[in-house]
Amino acid sequence: MQSPKLTRPLATLAIVIVATSGVAASASALFAAKAAVAPPIVTHVCAACHGGYGNSVDPSVPSLAGQGAPYLERQLIAFKTQRRTGVMSGIAVGLSDADAHVAADWFAQQVAQPNPDPWPDSAALRQGAAIYRHGIDSKNVPACASCHAMNGNGLPPEFPRLAGQHTNYLEAQLRAFRSDSRLSNPNAMMRNISSDLSDQEIDAVAQYITDLH
């Protein structure tokens, strides 16, 4: 039989642990609830196209969930200052620097969803995998994975996440880089890489990237 002197401290300790656990659980729940509420700039401006949690359902509109915050913020500022053009330039021109920071931080914290309709196995998909992982030696095209990581998660803060991005959007961006019509391209890096890619190779590697997660 345990001594009453020993039992009382143990009971007290158990109460303290339970109470502390309850406080921690409540704090975690409160944090999760706050994190689940998108900031106004996202709700009123971004969500219509990109979704409130950054997982776009429009194949021509990029998903932003899980993208590095510094990269997103740089792109928003590029659109705002017209260094990058397109539909977003007309939207971003009205954003403050603080808006860009808040939106970028929000989307960076969201969970990117995998492609719900994976591409079936095909010669094109296998070709895309080879280009992404190894590049094309005969054209001096480096492996995409060397900058964007083997799993497509990117190498922040410089190189963006690509995994799970819409195929249509990826194809459009690679063609824009190739034609030099996408202006936010530091040191023309992506212009130089994509210039030797054929349409078929662009489509193949885009399909493979979409299925990464």
Blueprint (SSEs and pairs):
Layout: H1 4-35, H2 40-50, H3 69-80, H4 87-92, H5 97-108, H6 123-134, H7 145-148, H8 167-179, H9 189-194, H10 199-210
Helix pairs in contact: 3-5, 6-10, 8-10
Looking at this protein, list some descriptive labels.
213 residues; mainly alpha; Cytochrome Bc1 Complex, Chain D, domain 2; 2 domains; 0% strand
Compute the average pLDDT: 88
CA-atom Rg in angstroms: 23 Å
Q: Profile the largest sheet.
A: none
CATH architecture of the largest domain: Orthogonal Bundle
What is the CATH superfamily classification of the largest domain?
Cytochrome c-like domain
Helix content: 55-70%
SSE topology string: HHHHHHHHHH
Tell me the domain tally. 2
- What is the molecular shape? globular
Query: How many H/I helical runs?
Result: 10
pLDDT below 50 for ≥5 consecutive residues: which ranges?
Answer: 4-34
Termini separation: 57 Å
Amount of beta strand: under 5%
Structural class: mainly alpha
Which fold name is given in CATH as the topology of the largest domain?
Cytochrome Bc1 Complex, Chain D, domain 2
What's the total number of strands?
0
CATH domain class name of the largest domain: Mainly Alpha
